[in-house]
Amino acid sequence: MDKDAVQNQPIIRYEDEQLIETEDSYVTEFPLTIMVNGKEFATVICSPTHLEELVIGFLASEGAIYKKEEIKHLQIDDSKGFAHVELTKSLSDRFEYSTKRMVASCCGKSREFYFQNDAAIAKTSMSNIILTPRQILNMMTGLQSASTLFKQTGGLHNAAISDGEAFFEHRQDIGRHNALDKLYGFCLTHQIPVRNKVLIFSGRISSEILLKAAKIGVGVILSKSAPTTLAITLAHDLNITAIGFIRGDSFNIYSHPERIKGVK
């Protein structure tokens, strides 16, 4: 069973020139150590919700698995902070150096490790999805409406995956990469095709986030924030439509605008 993502704690608040005893909501920070075939693979600092999805998405994003069926057994012991995973195969030698990593909530993983795996795992998008501007604005509105715990705490990243129509699945975590891994794990678990899906994200589109989208396999990523230069270079190279600054009734298209109706 997942633990609570938010806890209430007593605080002292200064307001109107007075010190007031009250309560505030804190996000829960939870270390989850992932054991693969009896060996420590990584410790992920995360929000303690949808942990099975997180583990599945994380392992797929790292290239340790390619589909859920490669997991023979998965057990979450959240009382001790462990995920025990038994695969139907052995891990390849390229994972030996990566054991016992600490994957922090703030930045996901070390940049050196990240880029060593990207060439083999990141996918050039073959998506043929076509979106209207109104669908883009509605998807961002949907993400903001679903982000209730962020409004309560201000301490969570939010992400969703959608087809622009009826399908919309939302996840949140203290780690921006974790939120995306949970969505990836959800899609793998339920065998949901991602080729013509859209990622909606609350934070900036960095190179790591763009590569995460490529690893998942979507063709479009939306954000209310800005992209980085490297992220846009990668988006052009990987055939991903990156859209940022979605605010009110406007947004910026940074790459592959051919997927948006009305753009010539």
TrEMBL record:
Family membership: Belongs to the FdhD family.
Keywords assigned: Cytoplasm, Molybdenum cofactor biosynthesis, Transferase
Its job: Required for formate dehydrogenase (FDH) activity. Acts as a sulfur carrier protein that transfers sulfur from IscS to the molybdenum cofactor prior to its insertion into FDH.
GO cellular component, one term: cytoplasm
Subcellular location: Cytoplasm
GO molecular function: sulfur carrier activity; sulfurtransferase activity
SUPFAM superfamilies: Cytidine deaminase-like (SSF53927)
GO terms under biological process: Mo-molybdopterin cofactor biosynthetic process
Official protein name in the record: Sulfur carrier protein FdhD
